[in-house]
Amino acid sequence: MERGAGAVVGVDLLPVEPLAGATILQADFTDPACPPRLIELLGGAPDLIVCDMAPNTTGHRQTDHLRIVGLVEAAADFAVQVLRPGGAFVSKAFQGGETAALLKLLKQSFAKVRHVKPKASRAQSSELYLLATGFKGRINPLPSGERFR
Ligand SMILES: C[S@@+](CC[C@H](N)C(=O)[O-])C[C@H]1O[C@@H](n2cnc3c(N)ncnc32)[C@H](O)[C@@H]1O
């Protein structure tokens, strides 16, 4: 809101401290009812989607990798369904590398896809973010009246 956003809507499985000007839903993003609810609360197509979802870790590296990939792919799929043309998608990039399917989806849907390390991220940390900008618009527009599949 401080940077001039018209509306901010978020979702988390856990309770989140209230943020001035933002509406935070406590829900499971992978519940099919959740994405349409987010759009309804926002009141229109978003310009930016930021994904920082991460499941609880099990300690089994491959299982943890598959679970986080699943969440990021679900968020990216949502982004390419609902973003306003010209919009952007940001997600934490995961340690084991992106799947080919995710990168293909982003590269065909956005003008530019790159890895970035924000200033706020500690230099010693290996964390990186995936930044996709210049959304080209939905490849298959939704039938009129349908907001999200
Ligand atoms: C790394 S934390 C980030 C939280 C927040 N962005 C922050 O900086 O405090 C990951 C968050 O993803 C949430 N999460 C995991 N799976 C989720 C799901 N299916 N739907 C919604 N939120 C989920 C967790 O509850 C957790 O709060």
The number of distinct helices, counting runs of at least 4 residues, comes to 3
Round the Cα radius of gyration to an integer and report it. Answer: 15 Å
Strand content: 15-25%
Number of domains: 2
- Under CATH, the topology of the largest domain can be stated as Rossmann fold
Distance from first to last alpha carbon: 28 Å
Structural class: alpha/beta
Which strand order does the major sheet show? Answer: 3-4-6-5
Characterise this structure:
- By secondary structure, the chain is of the alpha/beta class.
- It has 2 domains: about 1-45, no CATH class; about 45-140, Vaccinia Virus protein VP39 (Rossmann fold).
- The chain has helices at about 35-40, 60-80, 100-110, and strands at about 10, 20-25, 50, 90-95, 110-115, 130-135.
- It has a 4-stranded mixed sheet with strand order 3-4-6-5, with helices on one face. Strands 1-2 form a two-stranded parallel sheet.
- Helix 2 runs parallel beside helix 3.
- The model has no long low-confidence stretch (mean pLDDT about 85).
- The chain binds S-adenosylmethionine.
Structure summarized in a few sentences:
The chain has helices at residues 34-42, 61-82, 100-109, and strands at 8-12, 22-26, 48-51, 88-93, 110-116, 128-135. With 149 residues, the chain is α/β, with parallel strands linked by helices. The strands form two sheets. A four-stranded mixed sheet has the order 3-4-6-5, with helices on one face.
